[in-house]
Amino acid sequence: MLDLINVSYDTRIPNNVGLSSDKRVLKALEKWHPGYINWWNDLIPRKFQESLIYLRTAVSVDPKGWAKFDYVKMPEYRWGILLAPKVEGRIIPCGEHYGEPAWQEVPGEYRAMLRRLIVIQGDTEPASVEQQRFLALTAPSLYDMRNLFQVNVEEGRHLWAMVYLLHKYFGRDGREEADELLRRQSGSEEAPRLLGAFNEETPDWLSFFMFTYFTDRDGKMQLESLAQSGFDPLSRSCRFMLTEEAHHMFVGETGVGRTIQRTCEAMREAGIDDPFDVDRVRDLGVIDLPLIQKKLNLHYTLSLDLFGQEVSTNAANAFNAGIKGRYHENRLDDDHQLKDATYPVWNFVDGKLVREEVPALTAINMRLRDDYTKDAAGGVGRWNKIIEKAGIEFELKLPHEAFHRQIGVFAGKTFDPEGNLLTQAEYEARKGEWLPNKTDGDFIQSLMKQVTEPGKYAGWIAPPKVGIDNKPGDFEYVKLHMA
Ligand SMILES: [Fe+2]
Ligand SMILES: [Fe+2]
């Protein structure tokens, strides 16, 4: 009998979808596989391909004990296709088909819409690996290097998850889209990745931590809404991806937290109370808190853009079709069709920012973005606790949503982080106070030096409180040079 909890290794592609008895899809995926391995090999510097990394591999979708830790060479990582267990009697959770049994096959009328959503999700996964490809060369410790690679291999697996859906359910155009996912490249002129934030560089480790905190969290929200899809295979894929995604945000939150902690410690040791005494703080070889705020401003606002237009007919159509739900749709207590409901969205009227009620159906993106902001605020509060405990007067804040936006009602206008409208000239003159400037970037770069001795950390970041898989402090998470 087919075991749908544990992963089967009887094909080259580990899976719990019974691939060995699905010859057509198995063949298509085996054809796609070498291109994927080439992509990986071209991307990650060779030295690290040959290193042994202490990674977790998904061996089951059982919430208790789904992962196994061991040393692996990354090109030999068992990227697999894993779907969360089927929920018996699952219904379409929203829209005009609300209450009907969830689809096990692609509904013809929504085929194009579904394919597009899967392609967009799939495109972000390899994009982030591309953005982060050089970071191992400046890793502040083996612990951090291992976490980077863990995130990278799992984003690779998420690409597999979407490619499986394309191959299994979309025939020839699905195969073509799967090939395109390996052809587009982050930051490329000819074939860039589909979304703006995924074409930006991740130039340093603070950016990486901010990215995994803020941008992977956008990923989480998108996966949450696709996990509510009436198309059951997509829902099941996304539900399992969310299990892995939690670690990515943990890496981000603790990475920023450890950076803050080290800065505060160094300030106290040096007797510096004023967090705005930036030159003296930088002389200590740690990242000043105002610069951490600037990085936060940048990554948070780039991530807000990923939610799209506040009022969107595409989003309304996807919800109405039952293809994409709201955050925790199945726990919400309403008609799940939004027949008469309204929702407040930002608008810009007579030079002022106002929130206006619009039909909730059209405000699906805005609502998801609000849920995201609430979710993102939690970690910021915990970062502030670290600063407070150190007795330093400084508070990190999420900037106003109007600040530094490329998409939606605020695009094309200039605001300060409090949401005050500025002229273009005022904004340009002060931008460097709010977003990392060239000097800031150069300073951070000057700190980015690789540390490879087990248990040692670069001077700008504190060690973690606990090791991965409860390993001791001096554990060799990466064996760079094989015996
Ligand atoms: Fe992902
Ligand atoms: Fe992620």
Ordered list of secondary-structure elements with their pairings:
Blueprint: H1 23-43, H2 46-49, E1 52-58, E2 67-72, H3 111-131, H4 142-169, H5 171-183, H6 205-227, H7 232-270, H8 278-283, H9 289-305, H10 313-321, E3 342-349, E4 352-359, H11 364-389, E5 414-415, E6 421-422, H12 424-434, H13 438-447, E7 478-479
Antiparallel strand pairs: 1-2, 1-7, 3-4, 5-6
Helix pairs in contact: 1-4, 1-5, 3-4, 3-5, 4-5, 4-7, 6-7, 6-9, 6-11, 7-11
This protein binds fe (ii) ion (2 copies).
One fe (ii) ion (FE2) binds at residues 155, 216, 219, 245, 248.
Characterise the protein shown here:
There is one protein chain. The protein has 13 helices and 7 strands. It is globular, with a radius of gyration of 23 Å. The protein is mainly α and about 475 residues long. The protein has one domain: Ribonucleotide Reductase, subunit A. The chain binds fe (ii) ion (2 copies). One fe (ii) ion binds next to helix 4 and helix 7.
Proportion of residues in β-strands: 5-15%
Ions, cofactors and other bound molecules: fe (ii) ion
Largest sheet: 3 strands, antiparallel
CATH homologous superfamily designation? Ribonucleotide Reductase, subunit A
Comma- or semicolon-separated keywords:
483 residues; mainly alpha; Ribonucleotide Reductase, subunit A; three-stranded antiparallel sheet; two-stranded antiparallel sheet; 13 helices; 7 strands; 47% helix; binds fe (ii) ion
